[in-house]
Design goal:
Strands 6, 9, 10, 11, 12, 13, 14, 15 and 16 form a 9-stranded parallel β-sheet that branches. Strands 1, 2, 3, 4, 5, 21, 22 and 23 form an 8-stranded mixed β-sheet that branches. α4 runs parallel beside α5. The relative contact order is 0.17. It contains 11 helices and 23 strands. By secondary structure, the chain is of the alpha/beta class. The protein has 2 domains: about 80 residues, Urease, subunit C, domain 1 (Roll); about 290 residues, TIM Barrel (Alpha-Beta Barrel), CATH 3.20.20.140. The longest helix has 13 residues.
Length: about 375
């Protein structure tokens, strides 16, 4: 099948150009002025690569930890509806056998909707003092057990790790050698521990300013930097940011942006099962890790802990928020396309360029979503709701 998206303002390889996109058999074939096959008129709107979300727990009432195809199917539909064409299902801290079941369920599911780009293990390698919404009693260290990670290395694309845990640097080295990206977070670390992990391949921070350590002392008067500060100043580090003006207020985002630049910021939703649902009371997780959660005024909170949980805002809407804040359109787009693709080592998505998958969003001038193509096929967004 050949398709031309014509009359487009195309964001390609770091710049905007006006013209047409030729797609053949789901792959971008050319960018220019010619037309072939069926034609879709973009009417002068912005064309970007499909959004990529590398940290998401669910949506439309379903969680990635649910051991059913229906759950993952629903989550994949939710993300595609929001313009996210590739996502990394993210697990919660749970007994190892439950994590294995969740990963195997994702492994066996074949998505006709948003593409699954591996699995993100957020837990059980987190610090007790910074567990957030994760059940502390189920946390372990890599030194205790890391065998299930390597048994699932065909699916695991990234892992969140607290640098202060026993065996953390060794885990980073082995994970990096196996093509698994390590993100540091949910920690109680000092700079010495953080640098040991960065020196062994870790290269990002999980949801900056949410469960990331600050300057502290251990057993001596010496004050050490925390993960927040190291993440902001170390050029090796890309920072995940939940840019919903709640988890990271817009004024705070401006500071992160000033220090890191858009090339080192990756927008993530950290979306929960309740993303896309009406306001009200729900539950996060199941079994031992089940917790009450409430959507109120556009944000998810854990009422029993008086704290935010993950977000209910897709990365595309975060880009709109940042554009309104005054961040350039090119940079808003990069933070939810090129940067996440680079982190998970995917060269076939994340940009509009010859040879890449024809996962394309049509955006309005304010970067709000107008239409989505997945593999060169126009998505019927209303049908996704079922």
């Amino acid at each position: 099948m050949t398709l031309t998206i014509k009359n487009a303002k195309i964001y390609t390889e770091g710049k905007f150009v006006e013209g047409n996109i030729i797609i053949k058999d789901g792959i971008i074939f050319a960018i220019g002025n010619q037309e072939e096959g069926e034609v879709f008129d973009a009417e002068g709107k912005i064309c970007t690569a499909g959004f990529i979300d590398i940290h998401t727990h669910g949506g439309w009432g379903k969680d990635c930890m649910e051991n059913t195809f229906d759950a993952i199917d629903t989550i994949a539909r939710y993300h595609l509806y929001t313009g996210t064409t590739s996502f990394v299902p993210t697990t919660m801290t749970a007994p190892v056998e439950d994590i294995n079941k969740a990963v195997d369920n994702i492994r066996q599911y074949k998505s006709p909707f948003a593409r699954i780009a591996g699995v993100h293990l957020e837990g059980p390698y987190l610090a007790q003092k910074s567990a957030g919404a994760h059940p502390p009693k189920l946390l372990i260290t890599p030194a205790q057990d890391d065998s299930f990670v390597w048994q699932n290395k065909d699916m695991v694309s990234r892992v969140t790790l607290a640098p202060n845990l026993a065996g953390a640097p060794e885990f980073c080295k082995k994970a990096t050698a196996n093509g698994i990206q390590v993100s540091l977070g949910h920690d109680d670390s000092i700079d010495d521990e953080i640098y040991a992990c960065l020196d062994n391949g870790a290269n990002s921070v999980t949801h900056m300013y949410n469960c990331t350590s600050r300057p502290s002392r251990r057993t001596t008067p010496k004050k050490h930097l925390g993960l927040t500060e190291v993440g902001l100043i170390d050029e090796r580090v890309t920072t995940e940011v939940i840019a919903d003006d709640r988890h990271v207020p817009n004024a705070l985002f401006k500071m992160i942006y000033k220090l890191k630049g858009s090339d080192k910021i990756c927008l993530v939703s950290d979306s929960l099962s309740v993303a896309g649902m009406p306001e009200g009371d729900y539950y996060l997780g199941s079994g031992e890790s089940k917790q009450k959660i409430r959507i109120d005024d556009g944000v998810a909170v854990l009422p029993d802990l008086n704290t935010y949980a993950g977000s209910v805002t897709p990365v595309g809407k975060m880009a709109v928020n940042l554009f309104r804040l005054g961040i350039k359109a090119e940079e808003c787009i990069d933070m939810c396309t090129k940067v996440p693709a680079r982190l998970i080592h995917r060269e076939d998505i994340g940009d509009i360029a010859k040879g890449k998958k024809a996962d394309i969003n049509i955006l309005n001038d304010d970067l709000s979503l107008s239409a989505t193509f997945l593999g060169g096929k126009l998505v019927d967004r209303e049908a996704l709701k079922k």
